[in-house]
Design a protein that fits this description.
The protein has eight helices and ten strands. With about 375 residues, it is of the alpha+beta class. It folds into two domains: about 160 residues, no CATH class; about 180 residues, no CATH class. It starts with 10 loop residues before the first helix and ends in a 10-residue tail after the last helix.
């Protein structure tokens, strides 16, 4: 039996291990920073966006199977009555001219790109046809004009039925829309022939995937499946900065990983070359070629695992120092990611070992 630990008697082995530890630690730190900034980005995304689906078919079960979907809400879609005298328009909708003399505009109650007023909330204290209008960043009125819309009546269509509403209040909300009474909400949900769903998603890439998967799901013109983001103020600059940082980390990570594969392959190959003298000695002592290959494979795997563990410990120490000195909240990579990384490294090391040509050995051994 060959002692696989004998390779650690050579000083050069520790040099190779140090090289693996350094470059592996760099990769770990890059991935930790990527996770940190990506989590910040996703938190901003979650707080300032939602995914809207308006369809003829109910996709609730299909949508709930996606990861990172934290909630699905039922909603109602009401069509503006552009002939209403108490509310104007900013555009030429329904062939009407913009209404500069009106405090409220229909566009201020609707999402950009969707021609209906959405309702996802109700208020137990509201009477049947009373509503609360959301004060979102889409509104253009002056603050002193706000009380003037209270008790005004506006009307909207639910399918072909015109419903008159009385505005009883204004509430600040990130999204445009209105809040209605509980009784009317339940009634309209039960009668609505289409399905209006609002999803809160905790991961930006998941939102992109759902949007791509649902593209063209239905052929009708009223079908909508898309993400709506409503960043404002400092959040706009923050999300832009985080996006740029993540893009840079992506590029740097790809370069480092590519460099790692090249360096790691050369390190493993050189460590095998440096053992040629001991390999020849073992052949003289009667070891078969497959036994020597097995020894090289096991000793290399052991070296890689030890280097990986040292990298993990060093990564933890660096994260602790950075978090305490620079007030970051970096974290170690999760177990699944760590297992994938060590799996890739071990496979790469095994391939190099198995392809290594053991010279000065009898191929018939």
């Amino acid at each position: 039996m060959i002692n696989i630990c004998s390779t650690f008697r050579e000083k050069i082995t520790y040099i190779y291990m140090a090289m693996i530890v350094i470059i592996t630690t760099i990769i770990f730190m890059l991935l930790s920073f990527y996770k940190y900034y990506n989590d910040l980005f996703n938190q901003l995304f979650f707080n300032n966006s939602f995914f809207l689906v308006v369809s003829q078919n109910d996709y609730t079960q299909e949508l709930s199977k996606y990861p990172n979907v934290s909630g699905i809400e039922d909603g109602i879609a009401l069509k503006p009555n552009y002939q209403d005298k108490e509310i104007g328009t900013l555009s030429y909708a329904e062939d009407l001219e913009p209404s500069d003399d009106k405090i409220l505009k229909w566009e201020e109650l609707m999402l950009g790109g969707y021609d209906h007023v959405l309702v996802f909330e109700y208020d137990e204290n509201l009477k049947e046809n009373e509503i609360i209008v959301y004060q979102s960043q889409a509104m253009y009125y002056l603050e002193e004009e706000l009380p003037m819309v209270i008790d005004k009546e506006i009307s909207m269509y639910f399918q072909d039925k015109l419903i008159n509403f009385t505005i009883k209040g204004i509430e600040k909300n990130a999204n445009p829309g209105i809040k209605i009474s509980r009784s009317l909400f339940d009634k309209l949900i039960a009668e609505q022939p289409i399905f209006v769903r609002r999803l809160k998603i905790t991961d930006y890439n998941t939102a992109l995937k759902i949007s791509a998967d649902f593209q063209g799901k239905e052929k009708n013109t009223d079908f909508i499946a898309g993400n709506y983001e409503y960043y404002s103020g400092d959040n706009i600059d923050e999300v832009s900065k985080l996006h740029n940082i993540i893009e840079v980390l992506n590029v740097v990570s790809i370069i480092i990983i590519f460099a790692f594969v090249i360096i790691f392959t050369h390190v493993i190959k050189n460590s095998l070359v440096d053992q040629m003298e001991s390999i020849s000695l073992r052949h003289i002592l009667g070891y078969k070629k497959w036994q020597i290959k097995k020894y090289l494979l096991y000793s290399t795997i052991l070296m890689v695992i030890l280097s990986y563990l040292l990298s993990f410990i060093l990564n933890g120490i660096l994260i602790f120092i950075i978090n305490n000195i620079f007030n970051y909240q970096l974290s170690l990579l999760n177990f699944f990611t760590m297992v994938k990384l060590v799996g890739v490294i071990l496979v790469l090391a095994s391939i190099v070992c198995l392809l290594f040509n053991i010279k000065r050995l009898n191929d018939n051994a």
